[in-house]
Amino acid sequence: NSEVMVRLNKAEARHAELESLMGDPQIVANRGEYQRYAKEYADLGRVMERFRRYKDLLKAKIQYMKTRQY
Question: Which of 15, 21, 37, 39 can bridge 44 by disulfide, Cβ–Cβ 3.0-4.6 Å?
Answer without folding.
Answer: 15
